[in-house]
Every structure is written in structure tokens, then in C-alpha cells.
UniProtKB/TrEMBL annotation, chain A:
Subcellular localization: Endoplasmic reticulum membrane
Any GO BP: protein retention in ER lumen
One term under GO cellular component: endoplasmic reticulum membrane
The name this protein goes by in its record: ER lumen protein-retaining receptor
Predominant location category: endoplasmic reticulum
Keyword Membrane: yes
Signal peptide from the UniProt entry: none
Organism: Tribolium castaneum
Keyword terms, alphabetized: Endoplasmic reticulum, ER-Golgi transport, Membrane, Protein transport, Receptor, Transmembrane, Transmembrane helix, Transport
Record-linked InterPro entries: ER_ret_rcpt
Length: 212, 10
């Protein structure tokens, strides 16, 4: 565990907490893409199957359980509890266009052709693009609430910090995982446009509004 | 196939 990995995990944790609190406090999931949240639930489910096969550390186990639990809780809040506030007219990204390529790529490019390994690889590929329905929704409505922007910034920072962690680990431990690294870079690049808007607008107290 | 690595990250 190094400082980049730890802050990355904390940014990820923060993002999830911000999102859950926003929905819970406002009793509304307006502006949140339920489809992105479904994709994240699929990502954690397929990645953390090793919870029952491999023990790494108490930290690792607790975080995995939290990510799994919170992702299902978020999906429940959006599609069941606060269904009436869900903005489905603007959440029109076709997730099969992300899931199918991730499945095919996981079958073609993986570390080992075993069920657990392929599911892990699939989760890595899917995570890298899972935010697209949310970004699509923001671009479609042309704006995002500040709290949604904070959520996106924390979530984008997480994989960015993981890249620093991978550089550090490669230098210090000669440890690297090409699949995670390439997918992590793709994932971070997808946020670049948003990062720019966040820094130039949201941090200056303005609402995140896209030019018409 | 690239080498299998320990999955100690989240």
C-alpha cells in the first residue's frame, strides 16, 4: 500500500458516499444515470468474486464488501425507492454497446482463460467505460448539479491516482498489470474533458453548464 | 497472454 493507492481508494470511497448522501438527503436521483450505476454494480460483482476464494487483507475485504453493498444500494435507490425522481428520458445510453465489447475483449485479451480471470478482466474493461452513460446524460441535459460534479471529480480522481500508484509500484516492486494499466488510462482519459470543466467552472462557484 | 499477477488492488 502506497500513498497514491490509498488516496485513490479514499477518493473512490468518497465518490460513492457523496452520491449516496446526495440521493438520500434530497430524496431524489435527478441527474444521476441509473445505467452507469447498474454498470458499476456489474463491475464490482464480477471483480470481487475472489472475496470467497482469496484473502488479501482485512482492508481489502472490507472495501470490497463496501463497494458491492453500496453499488447495489445505489441501484435500489434509483430504480425502486426514488424511482419517481429518476430522469430516465435523459438516461438513454445503450449499455449493451459497452457490455458486449467488454465481454468480447475479455475473452480475447486476458491473463488466463479461466472463468474467474475472464470475469475479472471483463470487470476491468467495463469499469473503464462505465461512466459513459453518466457523461452522456450530462452532455444531453447540458448541465450537472454541483454535487454531481463533485461525485464525478472524486470518481475520476480515483483511477488517475491509481495510475500514479502503478508507476510507483513498477518502479519500487517491478509489479505491473498491463490490462489494468491500459484500461485505467482509458478510464482516466474519459474524464479529462470533465476535469477541465470542473476546474474552470465548478471550483469557481459556477454551475457546470456546457456551451450550447 | 500476458503474465498473471496477484490481484491485491481494488
Amino acid at each position: 500500500m502506497n500513498i497514491f493507492r490509498l488516496t485513490g481508494d479514499l477518493a473512490h470511497l468518497l465518490a460513492i458516499i457523496i452520491l449516496l448522501l446526495k440521493i438520500w438527503k434530497t430524496r431524489s436521483c435527478a441527474g444521476i444515470s441509473g445505467k452507469s450505476q447498474i454498470l458499476f454494480a456489474i463491475v464490482y460483482t464480477t471483480r470481487y468474486l475472489d472475496l470467497v476464494t482469496t484473502y488479501v487483507s482485512a482492508y481489502n475485504t472490507l472495501m470490497k464488501i463496501f463497494f458491492l453493498g453500496s453499488s447495489f444500494a445505489t441501484v435500489y435507490l434509483i430504480y425502486v425507492k426514488f424511482k419517481a425522481t429518476y430522469d430516465h428520458n435523459h438516461d438513454t445510453f445503450r449499455i449493451e454497446f459497452l457490455i458486449l465489447p467488454a465481454v468480447i475483449l475479455a475473452l480475447l485479451i486476458n491473463h488466463a482463460f479461466t472463468p474467474l480471470e475472464i470475469l475479472w478482466t471483463f470487470s476491468i474493461y467495463l469499469e473503464s467505460v462505465a461512466i459513459l452513460p453518466q457523461l452522456f446524460m450530462v452532455s444531453k441535459t447540458g448541465e450537472a448539479e454541483s454535487i454531481t460534479s463533485h461525485y464525478l471529480f472524486a470518481l475520476g480522481s480515483y483511477r488517475g491516482l491509481y495510475i500514479l500508484n502503478w508507476i510507483y509500484r513498477y518502479a519500487m516492486e517491478s509489479h505491473y498489470d498491463l490490462i489494468a494499466i491500459v484500461a485505467g488510462i482509458v478510464q482516466t482519459v474519459l474524464y479529462c474533458d470533465f476535469f477541465y470543466l470542473y476546474i474552470t467552472k465548478v471550483l469557481k462557484g459556477k454551475k457546470l453548464q456546457l456551451p450550447a | 497472454n500476458t503474465k498473471t499477477v496477484v490481484k491485491d488492488e481494488l
